[in-house]
């Protein structure tokens, strides 16, 4: 299957929301409990989040298939924070995360950003490491979900750009 990377378009919002939830639910179980997956998925909201983020100046790069359907995406904020990187489970392990991270890095370099940083899940950490990100520390925290705090973790990571 052929993929290409392009910038976000407003009709992508629904698909991006679905990609996030599918990835969290299908792939998340490899490293997180059902309770953690529920709390994580509950934080992602619906399609309007993507429209709001673009209005705020954030850039979303979208991997699309040959029919221009969104299958993966990365969201980068103006200061170099890579807030989201998700692949639909049916399109994982095809190099899309690496391509999206490279696109985000090129964008950051053009914008004069000196450092990329993220909070990577246990599952995304290897993709970021392959792209040259370094783990700063593990972040243990809780997400409020269904009336209680659900403990979960991720990794603070960064990549210096020169």
Describe this structure in words.
This protein is an alpha+beta fold and 162 residues long. 33% of the residues lie in helices and 33% in strands. It has 5 helices and 7 strands, in the order E-H-H-H-E-E-E-H-E-H-E-E. The strands form 2 sheets. It has a 4-stranded antiparallel β-sheet, sandwiched between helices. A 3-stranded antiparallel β-sheet has the order 5-7-6. The chain is globular and about 40 Å long. The model has no long low-confidence stretch (mean pLDDT 95).
Which key terms come to mind for this protein?
single chain; 162 residues; alpha+beta
Kindly summarize this structure in a few lines:
Helix content is about 35%, strand content about 35%. The protein is α+β, with helices and mostly antiparallel strands and about 160 residues long. It is globular, with a radius of gyration of 15 Å.
Helix amount, in percent?
A: 25-40%
Question: Which series of helices and strands comes N to C?
Answer: EHHHEEEHEHEE
- The pLDDT mean sits at 95
Give the biggest beta sheet. 4 strands, antiparallel
**Strand line-up across the major sheet:** 1-2-3-4
Shape: globular
For the termini, the CA-CA separation is: 34 Å
Q: Treating each run of at least 4 consecutive H or I residues as one helix, how many helices?
A: 5
Low-confidence runs of at least 5 consecutive residues:
none
Derived structural class: alpha+beta
**β-strand number:** 7
**Strand content bin:** 25-35%
What Rg is obtained from the alpha carbons, in whole angstroms? 15 Å
């Amino acid at each position: 299957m052929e993929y290409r990377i392009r910038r976000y378009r407003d009709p992508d919002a629904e698909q991006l929301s679905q990609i996030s939830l599918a990835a969290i639910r299908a792939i998340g179980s490899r490293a997180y409990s059902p309770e953690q997956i529920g709390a994580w998925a509950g934080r992602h909201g619906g399609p309007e989040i993507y429209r709001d983020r673009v209005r705020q100046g954030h850039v979303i790069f979208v991997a699309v298939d040959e029919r221009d359907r969104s299958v993966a995406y990365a969201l980068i904020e103006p200061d170099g924070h890579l807030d989201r990187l998700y692949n639909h489970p049916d399109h994982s392990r095809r190099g899309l995360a690496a391509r999206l991270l490279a696109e985000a890095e090129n964008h950051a370099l053009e914008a004069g950003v000196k450092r990329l940083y993220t909070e990577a899940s246990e599952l995304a950490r290897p993709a970021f490491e392959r792209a040259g990100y370094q783990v700063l520390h593990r972040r243990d925290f809780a997400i409020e979900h269904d009336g209680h705090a659900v403990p979960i973790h991720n990794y603070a990571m960064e990549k210096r750009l020169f």
